[in-house]
Each structure stands twice: as structure tokens, then as C-alpha cells.
What we know:
The chain is mostly helical. The chain contains 3 helices and 2 strands. Helix 1 (about 15-35) packs antiparallel against helix 2.
Amino acid sequence: FQPDRRDIVSDLRDVIPAQNTINMLSVNEVVSSEFAAFGQKWAISNASNIGSIKSSPRTIIDFPAAQEGEQNTEVGEFGATDLSNFGKAIERRIQGIAAATRTPLHYFHAAGGVPSGEALIALEAPLNSKAQDRIDRFTVTWKKLGSFLLLLVGIEIPAKDITPQFD
């Protein structure tokens, strides 16, 4: 089925990169939340045993002071990222997918109030128009396919007498 009569292009061509980005952001959000739950510590020291120290609850680590002329001994913790950044980035991608596919945003978000009947008609008009366009373009192909499949089982019905039902 060809949605565009000139080019063979999938309706999802512009959506797949955005969906891949949403998947990546979702995974990164989970990793970042795990990192925030168990923050990573760091230490800079010239101590010879620093590579064998294990950090665990209620562990006190004594680092020797730096010698004169050496880098100071320092310790700290890496900060956690703000997880709301991921939600904002995902929301922007969802809005892009909705615009590219002419899908109303309420199909993506179950939260919030239910739009009124008149609002639904207005919100879904672009999607309904796109669906009708696909129906108009694919009907001829479905008629031919139906006629061919019936012919395979020994029933000869011309394609013009077949009416595909789209629901």
C-alpha cells in the first residue's frame, strides 16, 4: 500500500527517529534515577591504596593529607541530574509525533479531563481526514486483493462488486 502516489514512503518515516529518542531518554531516566538513589563518590589522593577501598554504609575512610608540592586530597559526590529534564524532552518528542502523524495529544495522555464531544470532533478532524485519505487510496487495492483471493478458492467476483469495510 502506498500512502503517497509519487513516492514509496512510510507514514512512520518521520516518527521512528523521535520514537527512538523517546526510548533512549526513558532508559537514561531510569539509569539516572538509580544513580540518584546511590550517589557516586569520588576521591583524589596520592595514597597508594585508593584503588582497593570499598565504599559502603557506615564506612569511614581515612585519606592521608597530600605532601607539599602534590595535589590536595579531595573527596566529593557526583550530583544527580534533574529527572524532570527527561520528562520535558520526552513530552517535546511526543508533541512532534502528534504533529507529524496528525494524532490528537489526548491519544498519548490518559490524564486530564475528557474533551467535550464538539472538542473531540475538532481535535480529531486532521486524523479523520488522514484516515479517509488512506481509505480512498487503499480501497482499489483491497478490492483487487479480495477479488483475487476469492478467485483462488474458485469464486469469480469482479473487483468492482467488492466493497471493503474500514472500521
